[in-house]
């Protein structure tokens, strides 16, 4: 990615030389904002600017030129290249020059997990928090666009997380991701810190909470990801809207789900989000306890009065034969005129091997291997025939090579 960006920037710079009528004061490459890929599918106000505050500081150095691998470029361009690198690699590059060190202090993508911090699986709370604190103390706090925190060790004091989020959530932020594995005491995400672009929350019944409360807290949110370890309440149909929401990811984690939970209630999000383009539903469960489509004698529920005109891509991982999940999928297929792609993954979205590779797929539980054939039968019998010819259906099953023996 960095090489492609470099070639593009060099080409832009040559073009600028031929345009002598352009103001010399605009040293930053034209159109750079168009190279920025926003996961939310939009460019925020901070991205539309020609340069960040940190880059303004670099310009004040007199537009210094730096040479690397025989290529001479302004320092601000090298800063941009550095921003494309993963945080750990960018930190290593910062030791090469003062200019790179200045760029590192404004690195836009901060990712904190055991791997990025160089910690092993046995790392304790002190190891994790001290490294995060050290990095943030050496960061200027300017230009942060993506902040990702994944904590697998137990944190007894959630005040650390609050302070890190207060550091990260600034007017230029575009994406916030927080993943806490079995953390106690329970952490309530401080949605009040958000502006209105990106929201991510984790707590009990958060799916219901996101639908009922977030429209008033972040009415202009464009990308929303919500994860729940305990979802017992169905998502309500409400008049409030998320009028700007384009990307929605819902993750459900549990050993088993309550048989009372209704996947079909997630239709409420589609009704609330008229501009929704991408929907991802991740279901992580070891045992499917819902009523199966093959065990039910009742007809599939329908809501034909709700149509979705912008939804293009739908992905459901952990797809199973639960009747309510089949109903949700059928609703999407039958009431979405704009649908282009539907992926139904009967595993948990685990990494797969290639047919000509010696590597093996990520292990799949026996529960998934048992349910997967039933899920495929549900797709073939109840969903596939309703899919328009212009929609690409992709059904993923456990690898026949790695799991041929049922393991």
UniProtKB/TrEMBL annotation:
Pfam entry (one): LRR_At1g61320_AtMIF1
InterPro entries to which the protein is assigned, alphabetical: At1g61320/At1g61330-like, F-box-like_dom_sf, F-box_dom, LRR_At1g61320_AtMIF1
SUPFAM superfamilies found in the cross-reference section: F-box domain (SSF81383)
Domain At1g61320/AtMIF1 LRR residue range list: 204-400
Ranges where the F-box domain occurs: 73-105
Protein known as: F-box domain-containing protein
Organism annotation: Oryza barthii
Lineage start: Eukaryota, Viridiplantae, Streptophyta, Embryophyta, Tracheophyta
């Amino acid at each position: 990615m960095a090489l492609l960006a470099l070639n593009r920037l060099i080409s832009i710079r040559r073009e600028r030389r031929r345009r002598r009528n352009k103001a010399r004061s605009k040293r930053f490459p034209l159109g750079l904002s168009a190279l920025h890929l926003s996961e939310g599918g939009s460019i925020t106000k901070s991205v539309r600017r020609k340069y960040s505050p940190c880059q303004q500081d670099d310009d004040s150095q007199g537009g210094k030129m730096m040479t690397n691998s025989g290529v001479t470029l302004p320092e601000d361009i090298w800063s941009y290249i550095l921003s494309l690198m993963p945080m750990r690699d960018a930190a290593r590059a910062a030791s090469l020059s003062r200019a790179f060190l200045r760029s590192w202090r404004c690195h836009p993508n901060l990712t904190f997990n055991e791997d990025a911090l160089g910690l092993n699986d046995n790392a304790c709370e002190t190891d994790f928090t001290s490294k995060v604190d050290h990095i943030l103390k050496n960061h200027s706090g300017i230009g942060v666009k993506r902040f990702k925190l994944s904590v697998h060790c137990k944190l007894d004091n959630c005040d650390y997380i609050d302070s890190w989020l207060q550091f990260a959530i600034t007017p230029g932020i575009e994406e916030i991701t927080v993943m806490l594995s079995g953390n106690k005491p329970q952490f309530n995400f401080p949605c009040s810190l958000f502006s209105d672009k990106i929201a991510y929350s984790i707590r009990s019944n958060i799916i219901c909470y996101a639908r009922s409360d977030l429209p008033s807290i972040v009415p202009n949110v464009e990308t929303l990801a919500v994860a729940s370890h305990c979802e017992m309440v169905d998502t309500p149909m409400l008049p409030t809207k998320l009028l700007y929401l384009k990307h929605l990811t819902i993750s459900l984690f549990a050993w088993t789900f309550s048989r009372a939970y209704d996947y079909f209630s997630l239709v409420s999000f589609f009704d609330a989000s008229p501009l929704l383009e991408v929907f991802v539903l991740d279901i992580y469960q070891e045992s499917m306890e819902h009523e199966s489509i093959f065990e039910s004698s009742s007809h599939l529920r329908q809501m034909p009065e709700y149509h979705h005109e912008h939804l293009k891509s739908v992905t459901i991982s952990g797809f199973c034969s639960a009747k309510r999940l089949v109903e949700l999928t059928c609703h999407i297929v039958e009431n979405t005129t704009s649908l282009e792609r539907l992926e139904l993954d009967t595993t948990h979205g685990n990494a797969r091997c290639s047919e000509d590779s010696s590597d093996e797929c990520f292990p799949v539980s026996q529960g998934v291997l048992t349910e997967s054939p039933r899920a495929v039968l549900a797709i073939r019998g109840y969903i596939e025939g309703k899919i328009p010819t212009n929609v690409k259906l992709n059904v993923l099953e456990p690898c026949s090579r790695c799991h041929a023996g049922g393991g």
